[in-house]
Structures are given as C-alpha cells and as structure tokens.
Design a protein that fits this description.
Layout: E1 14-18, H1 35-49, E2 53-57, H2 74-84, E3 89-90, H3 99-106, E4 113-115, H4 130-138, E5 142-145, E6 167-169, H5 171-185, E7 191-195, H6 200-211, E8 216-219, H7 224-231, H8 245-258, E9 261-263, E10 267-271, E11 280-284, E12 293-297, H9 299-310, E13 314-318, H10 331-342, E14 346-349, H11 352-360, E15 369-370, H12 374-381, H13 387-390
Parallel strand pairs: 1-2, 1-5, 2-4, 3-4, 5-6, 7-8, 7-13, 8-9, 13-14, 14-15
Antiparallel strand pairs: 10-11, 10-12
Helix pairs in contact: 1-2, 6-8, 7-8, 9-10
The structure holds adenosine-5'-diphosphate and magnesium ion.
C-alpha cells in the first residue's frame, strides 16, 4: 500500500503535484473536455483546504522536448481558476522553472495554487533528467503523484523528482490502485476478463498475466481473427497478425491446462470494406467469405458473452470487440458495455478506447471504475510495476 496525501502532514508545506492535464484543445485553444481537470480537483481541493502551498505540473500534447506555445498550459490555468474560484499563479516560461518561478513558489501562502508551464517543454523531462527532477524538487517539500496516465513512464515529473523529496499518491492514483489492484489481486469470483482491440501483440502480456487470475477469459475484436487463423478457419480479409497464430493457439492450450474457460466469438459481422457504409452481414466463424473482413461480434456471440459478464462478480474489460468507431460495427461493443452495466459485480474498464466506447454509449455512471490511464492500466494489468507508483512511500 502506498501512502496518500492523507497519511502525511501537508499543512503549511509546499507540495508539488503531478497532474494529468493533457486535455483536448480546439483551434481556438478552448478545452473541449475538462474531465481530466475536474478529476484532479479532489486532491487539489484537499491540499488547498489543508493550507498547503500547491504547485501543479503536467504535460500537454507532445511538444518534442522543446517549448512550443501551441502546447502551453495557459488554457488549463484559466479553467483551474474557474474551478477553484480564485487566482492561480501561472508563469509561462519556456524553461518551465527559472528564478522568477522559484521566487513565486517561495512566496506562496497556505492555500495558494500555482501552475507550472508544460513540463515537456524541457527535453530532460521524458529522459528523467536529474537536473530537471532536482529543479522541480527544490521548490517543494513533498511530491504528490496524481497522474495515473503517465505513471508507467519514468520521467522527471513522475518519478525522478521523488529521489529528492518524499512522494505520496493523490486520490486519483489511490483509486486506480484500489480498483485495478484489488480486482486483479483479490477478485470476487467468478472473475471474468474481456480482451479486445486490434492486435494480439498489444495484449499478449495482459492475456498471459490475466490467465493466472481469471476464471473466464473472453476474447473479441480484431485479435480474434488471429486466433481463428491459428484454429484453421478462413478469415477472409480480416485483420491478421500472421506471425502470432502459433502464439494464439498456445494461449488456447495454456488456458485449458490452467482450467480457465476461454471464450472466442462464435459468429461475426463481416463487411466488404473497412467503412461504416460497407455492405455487411453476420455469419458463423467458420463461414467467413474470402473477400470479407470481420468487423464486430455477431448476435450469438453477444448472447454468449453477455451471459458470462452479467453473472460475474468481477469483470475487467480492455479493448473494444469491434470497430466501434463506426456505428454499423459498434453494436457488439455496445452490448458488452450494456452487459457490464447490468452486472451487479465490480465492473472495471481499463484502456483508452474501451473507456471512450463506454462514454460514447453513455454508460459511464454504470461502471464501478473507469481507469483514466490507457497505457498505464494496460501495464498494470500486465503485472508490471509502474515507475510513478513505485517511487511513492509505502504505508
Ligand atoms: P484499448 O485502447 O481499449 O486498449 P485497443 O487500442 O487495443 O483498445 O483497440 C482499439 C481498436 O481496436 C479500435 O480502434 C477498434 O476499431 C479496433 N478493432 C476492434 N475490432 C476490430 C476489428 N474487427 N478489425 C479491426 N480493428 C478492430
Ligand atoms: Mg487504444
């Protein structure tokens, strides 16, 4: 268990908080979705209410290790002021930290909030450069990591900084560890995992790790065609990783050995072309025509998978079971989301596209937990230690 802001004294202390303010912006620099900012507010408000001097930092976009004002955090500073109902000190300098910034940090009073410029303006950030880590650490007495989405990266602002000052988690990371961690290590059973997405190679380590934990593993999406191929079925023009068919077969065997039920789609929606308006129909998995590609799970599969999901005590879902971005081929993914919504057990979504799908269907509120970190939640489910979590103090 990692310490959280609740486990340490923050009153009167200067606390530097790594947030995930990587928000989408339109051409006029308006924030089009501020969920990442509002999600960070519980930790920020806690620190403000407890009289900490708060310094916030984040990356935004991919500025390629040099200052690019296109990616300035200025719009975030403005939104933070609205949410906090008070001024936020924001000194936009390309070097992120300079004398002026250090001076402003020194002059903060209990309850004050300051935001640093995009940490990726510094090329050392993503290299976990010691000098930058130290510059950040020197301004504060305590480091709080609340950016789960970058916790799988060892950067200056996510990991390096904790070599110089003690680190604890904010409420967002606490929640992620509680739900993702508990679900995987201490699940109520039956424990069902649904894996989807385009490629087997993206998910192989997760599948390997989850096979050791789950009672039932459901596989859908683009990767199921690589399994089909390995099983000897014709898959037409479906997405295929030809060099992964043996691996797919070995996973099926492994599941059998371990007594884990492994479910693959029994029918599939196939289309002539990869577009929403393509001619399409549903067929059994052994009847895919040579000039058609698999785009979604079929109705029989929906019934099979939904039954498993609804009766589970714990469900983890990572990866859409079809090309959900196209409405015509979103039905299977929607049905999976609905089955999860109906499940009385703990329902957890890990993965950027799966989270986007659930949101698209308006079922957010029906899930126990939707992880905010795509890559991070994947690595977590792979059983990897996340550097941005590892550096935090143990309870
Ligand atoms: P997540 O972000 O939830 O981990 P992934 O990134 O692994 O999910 O996979 C999502 C992508 O997989 C989506 O863009 C979706 O269109 C694609 N996908 C799902 N099924 C298929 C399919 N049958 N053919 C091609 N792509 C697919
Ligand atoms: Mg994705």
């Amino acid at each position: 268990m990692k310490k959280t802001v609740r486990d340490v004294e923050v009153r009167g202390k200067t606390v530097i908080v790594r947030c995930d303010f990587n928000v989408p912006l339109d051409e006029n620099k308006n924030i089009t979705d501020d969920i990442r900012i509002t999600s960070a507010m519980p930790t920020i408000n806690y620190l403000v209410e407890n009289d900490a001097k708060v310094i916030l930092m984040s990356h935004l976009g991919r500025p390629k290790g040099e200052p690019d004002m296109k990616y300035s955090l200025a719009p975030v500073a403005k939104r933070l002021e609205e949410l906090l109902g008070k001024a936020v000190t924001f000194i936009s300098v390309p070097e992120v930290v300079n004398d002026e910034v250090k001076e402003a940090a020194k002059n903060l009073k209990g309850g004050d909030v300051m935001l640093l410029e995009n940490v990726r303006f510094r090329k050392e950030e993503t290299k976990n450069g010691e000098e930058f880590s130290k510059e950040l650490a020197d301004m504060a007495e305590l480091f709080v990591n609340d950016a789960f989405g970058t916790a799988h990266r060892a950067h200056s602002s996510t990991a390096g900084i904790a070599s110089y000052i003690p680190g604890v988690s904010g409420f967002l990371i606490e929640k992620e560890l509680e739900f993702l961690g508990n679900a995987v290590e201490n699940p109520k059973r039956p424990f069902v995992a649904i894996m989807g997405g385009a490629k087997v190679s993206d998910k192989i380590t997760v599948i390997d790790n989850l096979l050791k934990k789950v009672d039932c593993l459901i596989i859908g999406g683009g990767m199921s065609y690589t399994f089909y191929k390995g099983m000897g079925y014709e898959i037409g023009t479906s997405i295929l990783e030809a060099d992964k068919t043996d691996l797919a077969v070995s996973l099926i065997e492994k599941a059998k050995e371990m007594g884990v039920e492994l479910l693959l789609p029994v029918d599939t929606v196939v289309a002539k072309e990869f577009n929403n308006d393509s001619e399409h129909f549903t067929c059994d998995r052994d009847k895919i025509p040579a000039d058609y590609m698999g785009m979604d799970i079929g109705e029989k599969t929906v019934a099979l998978f939904s039954e498993k999901i609804k009766n589970a005590a714990t469900v983890i879902w990572n990866g859409p079971v079809g090309v959900f971005e196209m409405d015509t081929f979103a039905k299977g993914t929607k049905a999976i989301a609905e089955a999860m919504a109906e499940c009385d057990g703990m329902t957890i979504i890990g993965g950027g596209d799966s989270a986007a799908a659930v949101k698209k269907f308006g079922l957010n509120d029906k899930m126990t937990h939707i992880s905010t970190g795509g890559g991070a939640s994947l690595e977590f489910l792979e059983g990897k230690v996340l550097p941005g979590v590892d550096v935090l103090q143990d309870k």
